[in-house]
Amino acid sequence: MDQDIEIINTQTRNEKIKNFFIRNKKFLISLAIIVLIILVSFFSYQSYILSEKENLAKKYNSTLINFSSGNKENVVSSMKEIVFAKDSTYSPLAFYFLLDNDLITDQQQINEYFDLIINDLKLEKSIKELNIFKKGLYNSEFAKENQLLDILNPIIKSESTWQSHAMYLMAEFYISKKQNQKAKEFFEQIVSSNYSNPKIKIESQKRLRVYFSE
Fold first, then answer.
1. Apex CA 80: angle with CA 76 and CA 81, to 5°?
2. Looking at residue 90, what is its pLDDT?
3. CB–CB of 136/108 below 8 Å?
4. How big is the CA angle at 57 (ends 99 and 41), to the nearest 5 degrees?
5. Which tens digits make up the pLDDT trace of 42-61?
């Protein structure tokens, strides 16, 4: 008797499942097609991204070879194209190559490239902060106080790895401007902070003894 009931229950469940698929046939087919399209699109996009990165790598390396061999034609334009490709690996490499080799000198253009690297690329937090610090370092020779603070404040006001570097840069900026009290405040912040780089903290202590010891 129990076996007969179990057989009936099994048949009932199977019939319900069968009826469900029959009633929802169109929906299930549409859902399967949508999932398939999503999967195909995802893997196609990943393949495209990988292909684009490989192309950028080849372009970057070939441009370096041309530059090293003395064939500097189109080096600047090629590197700029890589910068504007907004790739997290090769765009910064291309930009700093242009900057380090004095292939771009216009301050406004250089700062625009810094902003592209900092704001438009998906960089790790510490790498983004390093680029902010580099932008501050570049601008420290000609920027006004407020301009330099605007650049470095995102690091100074955080618990960043680069916080003490940014504060030290501001302190040295104030020393160069004969604004010793402002410099002292930054050196003291570095010394008292638990996040300061040990070497930067030691240098700040030296600066305090040299400039502010009574």
1. 120
2. 93
3. no
4. 125
5. 444 444 455 577 888 889 99
